[in-house]
């Protein structure tokens, strides 16, 4: 399997190289040249999650890992997810199901990919003896998942930038309390898009990139997306492999893009519905064809407070029929505020994705409604998903809403909605007692470079 950049000017790589590279050297994102079809769909129901993961992921990894290495990595990764089913499906109402993706160690869907790629990185780095510096940008969940997965791993330093004052207290403490010396939490002045832009600046400085062995674990990294494909198959299998709609709370577009790969591989996915909060640039872009960056408005679903949605570039690449020059041009225009999607590409995108947005009040109302109807307490991101899903449910077609985080990560929003603060699970019971370790950094690439050079242990 070969991987090409969305901007067409970077070397073609194999899976391991693409995983260790993160962002392509031309600033683009890696994608497989072709999407493999999967067989044996009818046998998937009842298989352990790890077995489905192996069958789905294997075609993407090519010769990069042996069968034993990949199976071992999958078993260790998903051994850390508490629930027996790993990603259980719970019925909310007739025809509406919740795919619970928050049973991992940091209580968000990010654990599914991050736990696995940490295992794969470790195998690859042990083999090569290479040392790397991971830098990540987070609106709260990617950072905590990355720190949990990579803390203490030899040959790896992890620097995570989060927007100062714009993540929940639980999310912040998940990033600032681990005491592993290879982990560095950085509170950046600005919002998530600033953190992600500085991350790309670091990757695009090739001298710095090579000096520190820069690697990325955001969903710009293709390996992240691959791991997120699996649960579309397990959910569809639980529903008897009938044509099914999926609604996905969306920010950086990685999770829903994984859904489109699942569909291209053969999963019976009918509609993929992009659910946004008030930061609704993706909904506006799909509705009007204009991708115009506005101000980020802080919301009660802060992990989705994103305007520059990195994986949308992958969706655009497909929609433009693999025209890398056109994508490079659009990404240039993005730097000055946005771009217009061509009519042909817009039509192609609309064949892939439907969209909806909900307000803050509607999100709160949805947490209340679902609690009253089912007893389940949703996190605000999952509530955005459930509210948009309800706008799109059609008779006779099962709807699956991805529940992307545990409500205990966002106690203030949940309390506002239903007057209770969901307790943290036992393994996090001491989170508020531990000392925090965090560095304040300006939104400035040179300040970041100096800090990384000074702190890295490699
Ligand atoms: C809890 C939660 N839900 C939804 C999302 C959106 O996912 P994506 O960025 O893959 O679109 C995020 C952030 O990525 C998140 O942390
Ligand atoms: N919501 C995310 C933003 C980064 O997403 P990623 O999937 O590209 O890593 C977060 O929690 O950090």
From TrEMBL:
SUPFAM superfamilies associated with the record: Tryptophan synthase beta subunit-like PLP-dependent enzymes
Superkingdom as given in the UniProt entry: Bacteria
Sorted UniProt keywords: Amino-acid biosynthesis, Lyase, Pyridoxal phosphate
Any GO BP: threonine biosynthetic process
Cofactor: pyridoxal 5'-phosphate
Record's catalysed reaction(s): O-phospho-L-homoserine + H2O = L-threonine + phosphate
Residues where N6-(pyridoxal phosphate)lysine is found: 110
Family membership noted in the UniProt record: Belongs to the threonine synthase family.
NCBIfam families per the UniProt record, alphabetical: thrC (TIGR00260)
Name the UniProt record assigns to this protein: Threonine synthase
Record organism: Paracoccus homiensis
